[in-house]
């Protein structure tokens, strides 16, 4: 592979020195190796190379760099779109399930792309830049490809710096746990807290775990950080009432580490708490590879007596089969199902209600996550969720705040907006409002998916129903909700569609008769 690349880059004719390289890294390969053993890992690599060669075919040459990294060289000039297409096909092919020693195994792949001569004329520069692009692909959520761009150098520098700072934070006490109450829907009492990591960075302020957990996972720091979180949570909980539990998030990498049960036993003993007060939150991704290791880990944890919760349920890409054997005590319904569940026409309510039935049949509790509004609270209660967690009760609290809350007793009350207010967009559009046979000129001043502010009509009684022609062919039934002088708030009978940025989709203005501009007419005669 090196010789081939060298040969291309030093070709006598400049036009022949063009090529593209893909650096490819398998996602979750390490997990397979750790749980199924090295011979299984080798068998998987063989199958990966076969699939790779099949997809790349005659377009280029495939080689292995070592570990779970592969390289593809594509000679000549290839359009970006074509490279992107090839990368997508490779990722798709490698993400299909594998059968290894009778086990169904799923992995993914990320690809970094660099092109000669644009991104480098030596093999070192080209590979370094493809590697940066690969890093960006992994950072962007894995299972993606990324083209090299010059600003990736500063991103990589930032990441390296953050990784170093994270090591310092771990040894110097820069990490903190915050605690968010979990409330029983029937009693409105706190049943426990979820421990959520916070990092107070010396120069960047408070950093979100979604930003630094992936770095910790890549840098191999997550096992240590996870142990710190378990130990701290148990230590804090020891001072709290016996009925109060604490849930701690466990990364799939911790779960794949055979020392986890010993660590859990140890922190529980050190804090002298009842193991049933500790709940471990695990995501579906631990089931991507069905292995004896996963089953053994579950049994070991259950033997210790801790509770297990299935986190972010419904967002992963696993089958339901694992629920048959995995001994969960609770399913956490992801906030993406709660968000928007109260919007007319949403299917989220139906999904939540099915998850609740499933959990009840399997004798598991359910926590609805991310409940922000009173309407959402009413809904998840009505749908039968046994617990609620979200801003409607409390945001994650510092330990002191959590203790102050507990000192006032376990009862809490919900507080928040009645319903989510949709983002408003300002606009000025002349429209006609029709009530019975009366037509009125009006102007829309701002609009959201559920309603609009209109000017031009005076003293309209609230509850008046109009039809409104908003755009070409877009006719809505609307109801006035309030009116002050010539301003009126209207609500749409059906919410408008929104695009991926949450902006309402509005058809162009209806074609109007062209206005005669008298001054122009005069001038041009
Ligand atoms: P998660 O486990 O799904 O945690 C719930 C997240 O939702 C938290 O974000 C929480 O602050 C947020 N949240 C709670 N209620 C509401 C609400 O009403 N509305 C909205 N919009 N958000 C709400 P946070 O604290 O930023 O944590 C993000 C993720 O980081 C967590 O998602 C979890 O996956 C991970 N994480 C946090 N702490 C740890 C840890 O100690 N270990 C590991 N491995 N991962 C952790
Ligand atoms: Ca969680
Ligand atoms: Ca969650």
Structural summary, described in words:
The protein has 525 residues and is α/β, with parallel strands linked by helices. Helix content is 35%, strand content 27%. An eight-stranded mixed β-barrel has the order 8-9-11-12-13-14-15-16, surrounded by four helices. Strands 17-18-19-22-21-20 form a six-stranded antiparallel barrel. A five-stranded mixed β-sheet has the order 2-3-1-6-7, with helices on both faces. The longest helix has 21 residues, at 152-172. It is globular and about 80 Å long. The termini are far apart. Mean pLDDT is 90; it is low at 513-525. The chain binds ligand C2E and calcium ion (2 copies). Ligand C2E is lined by residues 180, 196-197, 208-210, 213, 226, 229, 249, 251, 311-312, 335, 369-372, 389-391, 396.
